[in-house]
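Why do we care about 3D structure at all? Because function follows from shape, and shape follows, mostly, from sequence. That is the central idea of this module. The next example makes it concrete: a single protein chain, its amino acid sequence, and then its structure expressed as tokens.
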Amino acid sequence: MARKRAVAEQHRLSRQTRKSKRLPKLARDIPAAIVHPLILSGGSGKRLWPLSRQAYPKQFLKVLGDTSQFQDTCHRLAGGSFAAPIVIANESHRFLVAEQLRESGIKSKAIVLEPVARNTTAAALVGALLAAREDSERLLLLVPSDHAIADAETFRATIALGVSAARDGNIVTFGVKPDRPHTGFGYIEIGAGKEAAKPVVRFVEKPDTATAKGYLESGRFLWNAGIFLFSARTMIEAAERHCPSTLVAAREALRNAESDLDFIRLSAEDFRDAQNISLDYAIIEKAPNVRCVPLDAGWNDLGSWSEIWQSAEKDKDGNAKRGDVRFLKSKGCFAYSDQATVSVVGIEDAIVVATRDAVLVTSKAESQSVKDIVEALEREGRDEAIVHQRVHRPWGWYERLALGNRYQVKCIMVNPGAQLSLQSHFHRSEHWVVVSGTVEVTVGDTVKLVAENQSTYVPINSVHRLANPGKIPAFMIEVQSGSYLGEDDIIRIEDQYGRAK
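And the structure:
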């Protein structure tokens, strides 16, 4: 309910800044057209640290409600004139993507895994090449997976306005009508014309405040949302002219890709040759056949904590919260806690985010700078920049409870029917105590069931496996002891999730 109220409030505020939400009649006259979503899910969301981290980035978080931005994006593009989506994701997030699609009840056409990050150009070209195998005229809608759209119906109708121009061989971008002089977005200047897809005069970088105010007052500038509609053929031809080497790398990475369960694994050797560059810089700002359709559907990129505050439900003092949070004599603040009690007293326009192992306090004005803190933590080799204490795995999750000299304590949850890899460790032994459920434990040649309040022991170097044959999640406490307790001390012998080396 909180999510619905927040979205409704954002939509109501958005309506106040415009005279009419009516779309041109053209949107209703376009016959149903199959548009194939190409959902990009490879970002890391550093500006939403400490909640968003490399191993569990912002598109998979449920910050504003009971569904993630990735799931909202998939639902927004499901049914009607939309075909099953192609999802392009980081290899390390493959099971997050698969699980969230399963939760949403959405069947993808393909989940393509990037072995290394190469920005949006290579991803767009892989999607176009994959679609062209079946139909080079297929229309692809490239969308980021981490944006919020308050009015999904208006969004879909606006996409329909770009279909005709895309069929005519144009690359259509969707520029968001600004409601404030934002300095964190790039802008698109559009020309005049009665057609739905306007000519693009130029793309401009993130402006200063004075320039952004001028853009807002002119009415000719839109925020660049990074949403594009094009045929597979049009994008491939544009790449041949403007970034041929990246097209070659994408083509070879796809040609030499391997199928793994429900995934397409791009060839790492070939994909590394792709230029690490955004689609805007590589193609969009150079191509002569780019048109722009204005989008007015309550868009927010949720790119920083100040944007999260902007979209969240607020109290009479403009404060927004999630978790066990209290405000006193404070205004315009956002606070998040996943466990501890957080109290915000006597401050304005602040962001407070508390997780189990990290706390962020910043002003809303400096929330874009959170990325710099994350990069500093990465240079220091700090785990807090990469993983949470709860680490998700394809079989469930584990959460570190304590860490000391030669010992570590974890809570482990194994999903029904799931199993860990058959593995061994060089440097540690493990004691397992079952808290709830029943698990099947393999140690060497011995296989046995271990029920609640029972325990078992795994010696150093023993080949072992843990499985949950039951119908409910199994919870265990694991106590590790040894000279080295790192996660890389795992020798996988056999693994149903394709992780065995």
